[in-house]
Each structure stands twice: as C-alpha cells, then as structure tokens.
Amino acid sequence: LCLANKNIECSFCLLFLFVEILERVWEISFLFVMLFCFCLDLLFQQYPGVSQLSSSLGGLSLQSSPQPESLRPVNLTQERNILPTAPVWAPVPNLNLDLKKLNCSPDSFRCTLTNIPQTQALLNKAKLPLGLLLHPFRDLTVKTVGKPHIDTDGKGMYMLISLCYLVPEEFMYNPLTRSYGEPHKRPEVQNSTVEFIASSDYMLRPPQPAVYLFVLDVSHNAVEAGYLTILCQSLLENLDKLPGDSRTRIGFVTFDSTIHFYNLQEGLSQPQMLIVSDIDDVFLPTPDSLLVNLYESKELIRDLLNALPNMFTNTRETHSALGPALQAAFKLMSPTGGRVSVFQTQLPSLGAGLLQSREDPNQRSSTKVVQHLGPATDFYKKLALDCSGQQTAVDLFLLSSQYSDLASLACMSKYSAGCIYYYPSFHCIHNPSQAEKLQKDLKRYLTRKIGFEAVMRIRCTKGLSMHTFHGNFFVRSTDLLSLANINPDAGFAVQLSIEESLTDTSLVCFQTALLYTSSKGERRIRVHTLCLPVVSSLADVYAGVDVQAAICLLANMAVDRSVSSSLSDARDALVNAVVDSLSAYGSTISNFQHSALIAPNSLKLFPLYVLALLKQKAFRTGTSTRLDDRVYAMCQIKSQPLVHLMKMIHPNLYRIDRLTDEGAIHVNDRVVPQPPLQKLSAEKLTREGAFLMDCGSVFYIWIGKGCENNFIEDVLGCPNFASIPQKMTHLPELDTLSSERTRSFITWLRDSRPLSPVLHVVKDESPAKTEFFQHLIEDRTEAAFSYYEFLLHIQQQICK
Which residues form the Gelsolin-like domain (predicted)? Predict the structure, then answer.
C-alpha cells in the first residue's frame, strides 16, 4: 500500500521493519527475504535516488561476493601460456575513489604489497617480501607551491604527518591559504606529488651553483679507443644545454701517468695546460682558475674541446693514475660541490687506488666468484664518502676492452650517489654500436635535469619500520639518505618490517620527501605520498601482491647476498622465495593437491620472473660471463627504477612482420600499432617471421631465414634475406606502409624511456644471434632449466 501510494517515508519504515524481523527469525525467513528483495527492487525502480541503501544493507545479500580475479587459483603446470598479451600494469590498491586520488603514480612510488598485513606474523605466514620501490626524481610536471611548515624534528627535512594520527600545531598551518585549522587542505595532502620552494630554514649555506668537472683518461689505451672525439663533440653540441644558470662553472682534468690541469681563466688567448707529475702528493697548481664560469670562458672551453682529441694522439704512455686524479678532483670540488664525470679505459696502474687483475677466465661460469664481486681496496669507497661529505657525486664511464675491476671502481659512484655507465669492448671504429650508445647516453647525461646537495627522507605510519636501503647513496641516519646529486634516472628500494600491530588502523601511509638544490639555485622539496589499506586475512595479502615490485626488491636483496655470501646462496634464496610463497599459499587452499602447482593469479608470473632473474647476467651460471659484465648487471639492479629494471629482467617480444592498425593507438597524430606480447621461447619464433625484442637498453630485430622478401625490402631496404648486412643498426626511412608502422612502433617504445636503446638487426643463423637467444628465458640451456622444468623443480621442493 505504501509503495502504491508512493509514500517514501512509510516505505523506508517498512523496509527497516523487514530487516528487524529477518535478524530475529533468520532460520525461517527465506520467503520474507524474497519478499524483501522484491520490495527493494520495486522501490529502486520508483525512487532511483535511494540507491544508497544498498551499502548499508549489503550484508543481507543472498549472493556471496565474487572472488577477486587476483585470487583466482592458477594451475601453473597446466596453464602453459600465462604471459599476458599486453604489458603488466601495477595493481590498483583497494581504496575508495578519494583516497586513490591521493596516491602518486606507481612509476614514482609503489609497494610490493598493495594490502598491508596487520602483523609481522601474518607477513611471515605469507612468505612475501615487503618493501618500497622509488623513482623520486623522475621526469614529470609537478605542482609547485610555496614554503612548507617548519620541520619539528630538528633534522632539517620534511616531516611526514599521517592522517591516521593527531598532527602537531605547526602542521595546522596551510601555506597556500595562509590560515590555520585545516590540515586536510594542505598541498601534500591534496596532491599525491607536490613540490615546495623551500625557505632558508632548509639551507646550511646559500644554494650552490651547478659545477661540472670532467676527469679524462688520455693514456694510449684511451686514445686508441677513440672515446675523446665522441665526448668532446657531444660537449660542444650540448654546452649551452648544460643545466645551470649564470653561475655555472666547468673544469677539465686529464691523466695518464701524470695529471694535467687546464687554466681556462677569462683573458687568456688559449687554454693553458699545467702538469703535476708528483702523483704521491697531489696539489692544485692554480686553484682559482681551474673551475671557470661557463659563460665567461666559453670560447676557451670550446678551443680546449676542439683540441683535446688530437693532443695525445702520439702518446706512448700506457699507465693510468686514476686514484691521484680523483684526489685532485676532490680538492678542486670541495669548496662548492657538484658533479665529477670520470672516463676510464683500463685498470688503474699507478699511485693510490692501483688495482691488479683478479679475473680468472676459467671461473667465468662458476658460482665461486664471491671474493671478486666486492672491492679489492677501500680506497674508492673512502674517497666517495669524502666526496659525499662535500656534496660531490662521482659518475663513472668505463670504456674498456679488457678487465678493469668494476667491482672496485664502482664504489666511487655507489657511495657518492653517482651513476655508472659501462661499454665493454669499446672502440669508436671497430664497435660502432657501442660508439653510438655512448653518443646517445652522453646527450641524455649532459642535458637531463639534475639536483645538487640533496637528502631524501622516507617516513611511514607508526608500527612500520625501514631496515635496508638499496641504491647509490650514503645513509646519514635511519631514514635519511644523503644524495650529493640526484638525477631523473635513479631508482631506490627499501625493505620494510612490521614492528607493531596495525589493528588500530585501516590505512597506512608512506611519504618520501626529496630536498635538493635545482640547477637554477632554488632549494626545493619534492613530496610523494602513498596510502594503502591494512588487511587481516592471508587471502587479502595474496590478493594485493605487486609481483613486479616484489621481483625487483628480491633482485636487490639477491645482489647483496651475492656480495656478502656467495652467488650460489643468492640463487638458492631466489628459488626458495618461490617455493616458500607458493607453499604458504597452498596451505590456504582446501583440498590442496600436491600433484598440482597452484598459485593465485596475482603470483602466477612469480616463478617465470625468478627464472628470468636466475638467467640474467648478474646471477647466471654455466654460461661464460665476464666478471665486469656481471658486476655491471648488479650495479644496474641496485640503481635502476622498476620500469627499466623489469625490461632488463624479462624483455618484451613482439612479432612485427604482420603489424596492422587493429587495436592501434594514436600518439601525436601518429598511428602506433600494438602487437601482442609473445612468450620468450624459440617455439614462438618462426623462420617466416620477424620479431622485435625490447631489452630496455637494447632492441633486437630477429629476421627469420624464410621471412617474406616484401617485408625485408619494405622495412630494411634490402632485396632479400641474403643481402641484409651483418651489422645493421638503423632502419631506413622508407615510403612504405610496413616501414611506417614498424618505425612508428619502435619510436613509441623509445620515447617511453630516458636513454635511447641501440638497435641490432640479427639474421637467423648468424653468429650475432647468440645474444638474442640468451634472452629466451623459457627455453632450456645446458646449465639452466626451461620454464616447465623449473615449475617441476619448484613443485618437487614444495612436496619435500
């Protein structure tokens, strides 16, 4: 009657009366429930505005809530093609829309678990890693606001205030509205990523200028390699694009068995070389004229860069006094801080920091290399820490044709927040692909954004704690990292533990704050915020696994294990991570059968990614791997952001000889095909096709022997397979539909990363295909399982 008369108030009363009855006589109420649902449906039809009732009465639904897709059990040994045809995206936390808006992009900040366990015991039961992956200074447009509140912890850094707790009085002030009493309207609460212009309270001294010092190996080995021509040309082309302002300063030091300084003081008619031969007691011959203003001395700088490639052409000096050259660089940079760029081509052989060869070629495929994965001397670490204390970072470019002990040299960058570039078998003529890579890397390196005298603090909700950091930095305190320089390509990771129960809160918050000096002399604070739900059930923990973040954190942990213990222990730990997590998940399944290897959908790629990691240069065995190559792969794992590291661990494979516009996307008036991903196995390759493999820093295009001549001619510009050059590194711009589609797709892939990858066209049955096939991680090798064999091995370990 109420419904027929459209009396909404009486209708509500009737419905709630039904609810009361149902709660008291549920065991005999099936017909009442059906009647209730019928009335509710009729009410929604007549009054659409009352749909809010559904949330308050949802507990009375007769249908059980559907299982999340992330918890769908997957039989790994039966579902052979588990790799999605589209890229894997970061899982979205189970939060309401308002809270989701407060989370920064997963490209900047993500957690291995998007559902945080209430207790450490629950985390231990799940057997999953808990940690954060950070890319804090990546290239993006950030909302910039005025000065932040004064930090109350006395450490000169931004202080996280979680909304789960009461906030101090200082946080009540809103710098945008300049009013008190509304902390929820503060910029860092309203915006997931925000940048403050810092006040003088965040400065120990006036902001430093941009200062760049280049330390160059000019020994016979270096001159023969020919890198000086590429470097000097790149500097000449990008001199006006170096980040900085009118105060920018620059200097050059060259070395062989002696150290050469260059007086570039304004007023000189030409650059003046000053040689210091006493490498045991290095001094600066003219301290005030070696680092000069870029704009006041630009012509002298150009003259030097034009002359340098030919100055040492006839040198017979084979020694390298790298250590003394670095000591000189430290003295030169100490008053201001800045960036030192070191170019080295061989083992340091004279003075402080000299090194001896430690590589045994017969041990390249063995796991017994632990003593060589760490440094041979602490000279470079101590020097890096001294540099860090003076706000100076050291970047290393190693261009070597032979073993150079990167494990020792890398310390100069690891502990000063620098970066490492490595070009094995470098020669500007005999290895053109490496020369091209250096040229492209230098263009990015010289022009990308840079932050000076930086510190980064990571804070989290009470009850959580951080205990291990990964990346290139110096740890100043338990949650404060010292970064003499910060660049947009640097990634970091941190491991977390749950020290106190989180039962009193439904949310946890993480926040990272990066305090730095811009190249324009501004002191700034960039803040990223991440909010995640707290869960109490094991199923919810598994539902929230971010498998890519987990594998990247495990890779960082495995590098540390390799250096501190052994490569064998690190490999065992990676395998055990899969065994333990899948075994723990199996214990939650009713009627669990040991004859099947079951994983939740959220973890179905976990064994595949671990197998890929075991076959990566950093951890592989049974395959001849040069020691410097292995160490460099470990350095990349420790310093690359997740999005780039994942392509290094598990490359993407596409078939490109059948590209169409079906499913294509439009980018800047350009149609970009979107071919499906292929699994990394030779069974997916066909000799009638062409395939592109994206390894992050390298693209391979594999051309099958039977590939159609139309594709070869339209895309490669060659009449047939036999005419394809053995060392082809560029695709010609041809006026054909296939060429346009292929180049559009490759350009789109290249534009998604800071460093432009080098392209290699690989012919089937050519010697160059070995490197390509090493990335087909699902296939068996002489010393490593295929993917299916690895699954059987995991299953066997679980059944023990």
Answer: 673-746
Q: How does residue 765 score in pLDDT terms, banded at 50, 70 and 90?
A: confident
Query: In a 3-state reduction of DSSP, which class is residue 214?
Result: strand
Looking from the CA of 42 toward its CB, the CA atoms found within 13 Å total: 16
- What does R_g of the chain's alpha carbons equal in angstroms? 30
Residue 529 host element (H or E): strand 523-535
* CA pseudo-torsion sign 661, 662, 664, 668: positive
> Strand locations in 200-291, DSSP E?
211-217, 249-255, 259-263, 272-276
Q: Token pair of 78, please?
A: 């039966």
Other C-beta atoms lying within 10 Å of the C-beta of residue 398: 23
Q: Assess contact for 495 and 128: CB atoms under 8 A.
A: no
Identify whether the C-beta of residue 677 lies closer than 8 Å to the C-beta of residue 654: yes
DSSP letter assigned to residue 714: I
User: What does CATH list as the number for 651-774?
Assistant: 3.40.20.10
**Is there a shared CATH topology between the 211-357+373-448 domain and the 651-774 domain?**
no
Structure tokens at 236: 């000449």
Q: With beta carbons less than 8 A apart as the criterion, state whether 703 and 692 touch.
A: no
Q: Is 665 helix (H, G, I), strand (E, B) or coil?
A: strand
What share of residues in the chain are helix, strand, coil (percent, to 5)? 35, 20, 45
Report the distance separating Cα 45 and Cα 51, nearest Å.
10
Q: Which residue in the block uniquely carries the two structure tokens 């060392």?
A: 727
Backbone torsions φ then ψ of 381, nearest 5 degrees: -70, -45
**What class, spelled out in words, does domain 561-648+793-799 have in CATH?**
mainly alpha
**φ and ψ at residue 415, rounded to 5 degrees:** -95, 0
User: How, if at all, do strands 652-655 and 690-694 pair?
Assistant: antiparallel
Tell me which residue of 509, 453, 500 sits closest to 481, measured CA to CA.
453
Between CA 559 and CA 565 the distance in angstroms is 10
Distance CA 329, CA 313 (A): 24
- The size of the chain, in residues, is 800
Q: Does domain 211-357+373-448 have CATH number 3.40.50.850?
A: no
Matching residue, tokens 């249908």: 63
pLDDT tens, position by position, 320-331: 999 999 999 999
Q: Which fold has domain 93-139+163-208+450-545?
A: Immunoglobulin-like (2.60.40)
Q: Name which of 700, 799, 791, 715 is nearest 749 in CA terms.
A: 700
Q: What is the pLDDT of residues 211-225, one digit of tens each?
A: 999 999 999 999 999
Q: Residue 39 pLDDT more than 50?
A: no
Terminal-residue alpha carbon distance, the chain: 68
Domain locations in the chain as residue ranges: 93-139+163-208+450-545, 211-357+373-448, 561-648+793-799, 651-774
Q: For residue 582, which of 637, 531, 545 has the smallest C-alpha distance?
A: 545
| Among 83, 86, 91, 98, residue whose Cα is nearest residue 114 | 91
If we measure between CA atoms, which residue out of 346, 317, 472 comes closest to residue 406? 346
